[in-house]
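Problem 12. The chain below contains 204 residues. Write out its predicted structure in token notation.
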Amino acid sequence: MRAVEDELAAVRRERDRLALAAAIVRRAEREVRERYAPAWLQAASRYLEAITHGRYTDIAIVETPAGEPVLEVTRAGEPMPVRVGPPLSRGTLEQIYVAVRLALVDAIDAEARLPLFLDELFAHWDASRLDALVRVLGAVEGRQVVVSTCHAALADRLERSCGARVVELAGPGGVLVPRPLRRLAVATVAPEQEGPTLLDLLEG
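Solution.
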């Protein structure tokens, strides 16, 4: 009986330790969010509004009754925000993801200007929002943006609209497959730098 009580006491201590650790992490996450989130959420909202032609106007982080942070978006003309997730379409979710990602990269990497990778995110986008994204990417300054896609039409749009450089990547075994199935890497103009760019390395 004593052994069982000792084991229960040990389990309770572990439970209390984990609860304390979780509370500390939640508090730290909240403090970081309250300090840094307003700026990048405003940037993400601007990106999303541009990509969706004003259909969605605001991105916010709110807490559930359990204290968990969730992402919400506001539709133009509607008073209540919508939680990010179903029933929003996959294309809309991808557009929110891209807007948040662009804003986070701007906030985290304002000086280093490392490349930004977007990999096959656009299969569920309509043509209008895809054109809007192309304009957004074309306006990115000082950062190389690499878009990996198997859709030749998107590569052509970026090439025409942004002056992007298209690199045709080899498939399995180093063989280039016909263009409709070819995987493409597309990048905006890279900032001036010494040595080869990322696309030079891909082509080499």
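Discussion. The helical segments are 2-51, 90-108, 127-138, 152-162, 198-203. Students who got a different answer should revisit the alignment rule from Section 12.3.
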